[in-house]
Amino acid sequence: LRDLYFANGITMSPDRSHLVFCETPIRRCSKYYISEERVEVFIQGLTGYPDNIRYDGNDHYWIAMPSTVTTLWKLGMKYPFLRKLTAMAAKYGFDPMFMK
């Protein structure tokens, strides 16, 4: 696999034919078919940032999303300097989450 965007979470399908993994910054989860070495999008445009994925044994995948998409996060993804500024502000006690 190439060009992954911070892959965070991976689980095996019940039939072991593919892996499902999530990419946090772009809010997407994909399937990687092992025998075919092929990737397809499983779900994209999530309402939050995926942080792990698990199969529950009952035909469902559970995706943890500890934070939702905010205006500040959208801008931070577009402008790296803003990410740095936000991190510095948080370090000195300013809560950047006011822009929900």
TrEMBL record:
Keywords: Glycoprotein, Phosphoprotein, Vacuole. It is found in: Vacuole. GO terms for molecular function: hydrolase activity. Residues 2-37 form the Strictosidine synthase conserved region domain. Pfam families: Str_synth. GO terms for cellular component: endomembrane system; vacuole. Belongs to the strictosidine synthase family. This is Protein STRICTOSIDINE SYNTHASE-LIKE 6.
